[in-house]
Structures are given as structure tokens and as C-alpha cells.
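Subject: sequence -> C-alpha cells, single chain

Hey, anyone have a minute? Need the predicted structure for the following. Not urgent.
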Amino acid sequence: MSLSQKYKLEFVLCAYNTSIETIKNSLAEFGDNINVSDDPLNKEKGKDFLVTISTEDPELVFDICSQFGRIRSVKIDEDR
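Reply:
Had a minute. Here:
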């Protein structure tokens, strides 16, 4: 029996015309421990969100988030 590997993702999502709730709802079925908040260091035109999520499929999470905008400052760790 093998257990699926979980990863903790942390990244900044620069998104236009979306909300924290929309991002959370889009990610809800693909991970847990989801936290989306405004980036207090936002200096770019647009809206930056800090996103953290535990997931088994980081690529899927990034695919979903890339539909909202640009992903940057990515950090991926094993979630224990």
C-alpha cells in the first residue's frame, strides 16, 4: 500500500478581476489547508494574492491558478 505524497505550495498570484473567495472555491477540491490573502507588499498594477495549499498534484493547482493570472515566487515543500 502506498500513500500519495502531499506537497505544501506557497506562491504569489497576480490576478485581475477576481476575489479571494473565487480562488479558494476553485482550489477547494484539489487540496486542503487552503489560505488565500492579500499580499501586503503589492507594488504592481493589479491584485496580488498570497496562496498556500497542501495538495497531491501541484501541477494541477498551478494550471488552475494560471487561468486567473501570473504565478510567481513559488515555494514547494513536502507536507508532513
